[in-house]
């Protein structure tokens, strides 16, 4: 008998399909590696790649092979050529849509990148999801928000860590400093992913890795796929560190609001510990990310200045869509999550 799978730290089971392409990929992953049918990517929605459930799940399926893999899936699928070709096709649609969403970027000389990043952040006019969660969200709405964010936070920092072997000098040292905090300075109980697992548990939610994948919509997958896209392509290393900088520069106040929202709802300090930790840590990380990480990178590679700003602007733009989805769903009196798959569908898919 094989050892039981660790649902917290091991690979996740394969999810349900969301269209013909993801269905074909899921069917293939259950078999030994082989060539996928030609022309499979023609099923993607080129008009709205960010909101295309099929495309975003297909990308997530492909990307996860570079993280923890999928339960029962042959690890040789990670580098199977026809699957990589399909992923590249989905990525082209996705990256084009993200660049279109971001629009023109401000010009910045290498020495002015930290100030340009601050300008990009200051110009962000997205809806205040954090404010709503602090002041008025119900417990069920907060549980939905945490389920959405679990897809990222249970592997927090991993995609940004892909930048480490691609950087040198001051930028590399700055990223190590930030990531050490993210990983709890080597202490399991201090890792941010483990702190977030406490929040899930106190809210009565499944703490398993990717446990809520079937429930989150395309926009949630897109927020995660964006980091993987930047992280897996060396040509986008500037965008990856810019993305991280935007995260750090916009994190401290929202996390304070999240923690206060949970306290308003009667949750204890174990539930809020993850958010409280980020209030202090990210206030420090903000300066390191803007000046030492991004500033250090563009001093060494001036041609990457625009990519740094692209990463920051893309992080904020896609997150605006995410926040709007949640707030619009709640304003309409509905759920921001997808319906739970019924037992019969799960049995057929398996």
Helix and strand layout, with pairings?
Elements: H1 20-29, H2 53-64, H3 81-102, H4 113-122, H5 129-135, H6 139-153, H7 158-161, H8 169-182, H9 192-202, H10 218-232, H11 237-249, H12 252-264, H13 269-300, H14 305-331, H15 343-349
In words, what does this structure look like?
With 350 residues, the chain is mainly α. The protein folds into two domains: 20-101, no CATH class; 107-331, Heme oxygenase-like (Heme Oxygenase, Chain A, Up-down Bundle), CATH 1.20.910. The chain has 15 helices and no strands. Helix 4 packs parallel to helix 14. The longest helix has 32 residues, at 269-300. The radius of gyration is 20 Å and the shape is globular. The two termini are 19 Å apart. The model has no long low-confidence stretch (mean pLDDT 94).
How many helices does DSSP assign?
15
Proportion of residues in β-strands: under 5%
Top CATH class of the largest domain:
Mainly Alpha
Q: What is the helix fraction of residues, given as a range?
A: 55-70%
CATH homologous superfamily caption of the largest domain: Heme oxygenase-like
- Supply Rg: 20 Å
This entry's quaternary arrangement is: single chain
Mean pLDDT: 94
Number of strands: 0
Task: State the CATH topology of the largest domain.
Answer: Heme Oxygenase, Chain A
Overall CATH architecture of the largest domain: Up-down Bundle
Provide the domain count.
2
Task: Determine the structural class based on helices, strands and strand pairing.
Answer: mainly alpha
Biggest pleated sheet: none
Encode the helix/strand succession as letters. Answer: HHHHHHHHHHHHHHH
- For the termini, the CA-CA separation is 19 Å
Shape: globular
């Amino acid at each position: 008998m094989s050892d039981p799978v660790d649902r917290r730290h091991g690979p996740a089971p394969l999810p349900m399909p969301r269209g013909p392409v993801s269905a074909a990929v899921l069917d293939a992953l259950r078999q030994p590696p082989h060539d996928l049918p030609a022309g499979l990517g023609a099923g993607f929605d080129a008009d709205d790649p960010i909101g295309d459930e099929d495309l975003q799940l297909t990308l997530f399926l492909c990307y996860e092979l570079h993280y923890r893999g999928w339960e029962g899936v042959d690890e040789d699928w990670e580098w199977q050529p026809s699957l990589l070709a399909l992923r590249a096709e989905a990525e082209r649609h996705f990256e084009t849509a993200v660049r279109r969403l971001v629009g023109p970027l401000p010009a910045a000389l290498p020495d002015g990148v930290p100030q340009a990043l601050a300008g990009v952040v200051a110009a962000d006019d997205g809806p205040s999801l954090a404010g709503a969660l602090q002041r008025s969200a119900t417990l069920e709405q907060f549980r939905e928000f945490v389920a959405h964010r679990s897809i990222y936070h249970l592997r927090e920092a991993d995609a940004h860590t892909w930048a480490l072997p691609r950087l040198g000098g001051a930028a590399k040292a700055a990223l190590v400093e930030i990531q050490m905090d993210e990983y709890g300075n080597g202490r399991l109980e201090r890792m941010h992913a483990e702190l977030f697992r406490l929040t899930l548990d106190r809210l009565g939610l499944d703490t398993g890795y990717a446990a809520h994948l079937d429930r989150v919509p395309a926009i949630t997958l897109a927020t995660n796929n964006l980091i993987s896209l930047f992280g897996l392509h060396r040509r986008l290393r500037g965008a990856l560190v810019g993305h991280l900088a935007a995260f750090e520069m916009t994190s401290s106040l929202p996390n304070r609001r999240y923690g206060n929202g949970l306290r308003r709802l009667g949750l204890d300090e174990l539930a809020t510990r993850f958010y409280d930790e980020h209030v202090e840590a990210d206030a420090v990380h903000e300066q390191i990310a803007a000046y030492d990480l991004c500033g250090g990178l563009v001093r060494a590679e001036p041609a990457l200045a625009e990519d740094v700003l692209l990463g920051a602007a893309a992080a904020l733009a896609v997150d605006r869509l995410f926040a709007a989805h949640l707030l619009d769903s709640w304003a309409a009196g509905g759920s921001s999550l997808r319906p739970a798959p019924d037992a019969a569908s799960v049995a057929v898919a398996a």
